[in-house]
Amino acid sequence: MKILIATDTYPKQLNGVSRVLEKTLRELTRRGHEVKIVYADDFMTFPWPGYQEIKIALFPGHRLTRIADQFSPDAIHIMTEGPVGIAMQSYCKRRNLRFTTSWLSRLSEYVSIRYKIPVRWLHGLLLRFHQAAAQTMVTTESMAAEARSLGITRISRWRRGVELDKFHQVKSTIFDGLPRPIMLNVGRVAIEKSLDRFLSLDMPGTKVIVGDGPQLNALKRKFPSAVYLGVREGEALTECYSAADVFVFPSLTDTFGLVNLEALACGLPVAAYPVTGPRDVIGDAPVGATDENLKLAIEQALLLKREDCVAHAKNFSWDVATEDFINNLVATKVEQPAIVDY
């Protein structure tokens, strides 16, 4: 197929949506599909206030129309609800084309937290955006239930995977000399990740933050005893996972959290709040602990076996996730049955 994917976050940003798209693009290409990504850098942009690393497309409609017409896709998928996604949806409506969307982040909650906009207003916009699609893809059953509660009716699952060849247990001395246990968090350092809930805990050991983002400097000033390593990728990130004792995921808003799978693949148990994302990743397996008391969750997770974490991560495959995506796509045009004159 010729597949056109529209997104506001790809390819240079370090976030879950961009990483999902990167893996999916690789798998789709490997299967012989021709994929065109339309993203913010295709247009004039300006930085999102407070998130300088996020570029917002400025009036993408005209150029997007030219790109889409020239590519003439068999299927169109809209990954995000930003200006590029909205422009692509408008294009599809003008051309009378069917399309799919995905609900991969709680953009409504993020905007509400930062800009104090009532979340119910934003949920109304979210419903209108996704209800126009032939299918809205969500990651978990918990997210499917949330989508239905908002009024989104055409829902399909798009599961997640982990690169087991990249994320696995390795020998690492990166945290040697630091007080144990090593409590690790990896991800974007932003207010919606609730990192202050983690860093403010009174616990023995060392709290380590891997990542960058708009809240980093404020957290360094407020919690100077934590270790801040900045962005780590590839083998350096795998070493961090492998050398830590517990992965702490304090976010209350993530829809999944790929970093949880990466941690498990490296033998690192997860401690989190009992919310969508970690709850769906962990399930009933003895690979993590969720509790409204994050300190208690960490203490429980530290007792779990690393080999169980690795075994659980093997249940998540990008091959299966990509098959989900392909099966959920719809043809842009519905073939009209031939009229036979008897």
TrEMBL record:
Its EC number is 2.4.-.-. Signal peptide: none annotated. The keyword Transferase applies. The keyword Metal-binding does not apply. GO terms for molecular function: glycosyltransferase activity. Pfam families: Glyco_trans_1_4, Glyco_transf_4. Keywords: Glycosyltransferase, Transferase. PANTHER family: SULFOQUINOVOSYL TRANSFERASE SQD2 (PTHR45947). This is Glycosyltransferase family 4 protein. It comes from Microbulbifer epialgicus.
